[in-house]
Amino acid sequence: MADTLLASITLDGAITFAKGYGLNFSFLKSAYERDMWLEGFRTTLVLIAVTIPVSLAGGILLAGCLTAKNRLLSLPARLFVELTRNTPTLVQLVCAFLGLNMLISDALGGAGRNPFGAFFWVVTVVGMHGAAYHAEALRAGIEAVPDTMREAARSLGFGRLEILRWVELPLALRIALPAIFNNLVNIVKLTTVASAVAVGEITYASIMIWTQRDIVVELMIVLLLFFSAINLALSQVGFWLERRLRTPGLGPTGQGL
């Protein structure tokens, strides 16, 4: 009871403080809108936490295929990367959710039997979009690995896959870290396309609230601060990893803040 009263007093104080600067956050007094907004924050964080590993795993797989000698591996990977890079992410998401998902529903005998929802398609499309960019960064990193290291690995009896796993990828990751973290920042921003297919992330929740109230500026300020904070933290992690994993004479080093 005391905690609820304290929270109410704190919330009222914050709303009054913001009002002093011409910002109206009175919607936070509505339990329905406040819960929807907070759920939007949580959904966005979950989207980011799931999509980033998907993009990294896809990027490594695609990079391995792009650098393979076998055309049966490299050609489909190249076509996928070009198709993904050259078309808008929103268009890909709509095609996947309204087109491919509908075909799957028809094949399974109805939408009720289709296990893939809007959240799944957002993770898949945004994750693989990021994977295409990771793959190009890693491919450049693999090609930058000195041939002498490959020859040394071959002299030790390493096969092609072992060279990729133990020599090329570890060095390529170090070289490509700046580009990969730049892609991750872009992935965080791309999660906002989820609002187009009614996934209740923070942008969608904010749109739902400001259609009922004239508080677009207030919510946009929060959105800008929210995504800026996440991407600033992500960038600092990237700079820290660059310094931590730096190989002398190989690849750049970021300075961070």
Brief digest:
The chain has 257 residues and is mainly α. It has helices spanning 2-19, 31-66, 71-85, 89-108, 118-144, 147-155, 160-190, 202-210, 216-245.
Tell me what the structure shows.
By secondary structure, the protein is mainly α. Helix content is 76%, strand content 0%. The chain has 9 helices and no strands. The longest helix has 36 residues, at 31-66. The radius of gyration is 23 Å and the shape is flat. The mean pLDDT is 90.
Number of strands: 0
Quote the average pLDDT.
90
Distance between the termini: 43 Å
Task: State the helicity in percent bands.
Answer: over 70%
Given the helix and strand composition, which structural class is it?
mainly alpha
How many strands, what sense, and barrel or not for the largest sheet? none
Strand content: under 5%
Low-confidence stretches: none
So how many helices?
A: 9
Cα gyration radius (Å) = 23 Å
Sum up the overall morphology in one term: flat
Give me the strand/helix succession: HHHHHHHHH
